[in-house]
């Protein structure tokens, strides 16, 4: 199964996410009862009414949170909100992984404020986030996620719209996105994008929930069979778009999804020795793969296309290496989503020819068939040590690993 969160147009807030999850199929009564049970853990705040109603947003039928509260506006310490959330999730009997998720959401919010203001986390005070709204959003979303079983699903997120223009709040006026939004997204893999809405489209509470829920960014919808869709409406209305968040749940082939960078450059005056050394250096910089293709340039000269697959964090180092080692004057960089067969990494100690070796291998399962691949560096090392060919060494190791993987197989 796969879940796609689509905040490309209207961004995300805590109540939009909560509403979309209930629209997706989460038990509305369980969510409301859990939120009401949490009210007592935050002093001087009362929930007078809470419900979900169907409304239209630019012709799209969405679910919207209806929340009427009674509280005196004032600042609260972040630790007070955190305690109320952790006490609530325990009291209503959520699973341990759900409790950890809720706590991580409020921790992200507190950490962002701490870094922005340069103060210890236990000294952080909330202003806009001091309302019981924050508790309602985080606890409500956690209940809904657990009810739908989404903590066990693959969750991906499309680019997050943050709006534009300026925002005015307790700390004054600043450009949008505000510092808290930037800080929350800074250490995630998610992608943000601005637009001409000239308003805040993604709130700090929505952002902190999102980065703890989905750390896999995609630019396009994955190939999937759609099973259900949830639409969660925001409180604002816009003239040119529906202020709603979409969540799509579906199924796909047994693949994982990730996003990688592809770096490419053409070089036509570099020797084979340099290219061989280049591959080693780039792999040492953290590349996932390096390929070199031979071709002819528009001037009829032989050329080599160097193509590198890597993660975001390795791009700068690899670009530097490409320029320094080849003298290239330009490198193309593009994003690519990948479908990968799920795999796990294992290591075992095996004895061959009276010697003990540590062997690393990757095991994959696809459509009920399991296979494994031994790391080539281990094959090479063991092959040289026992003075056998790579092919013969692999055969010996596979037999030993198969015995461990299938201990009851007598064949």
Automatic annotation (TrEMBL):
<dbReference type="InterPro" id="IPR002822">
    <property type="entry name" value="Ni_insertion"/>
</dbReference>
<dbReference type="Pfam" id="PF01969">
    <property type="entry name" value="Ni_insertion"/>
</dbReference>
<keyword id="KW-0533">Nickel</keyword>
<protein>
    <submittedName>
        <fullName>Nickel pincer cofactor biosynthesis protein LarC</fullName>
    </submittedName>
</protein>
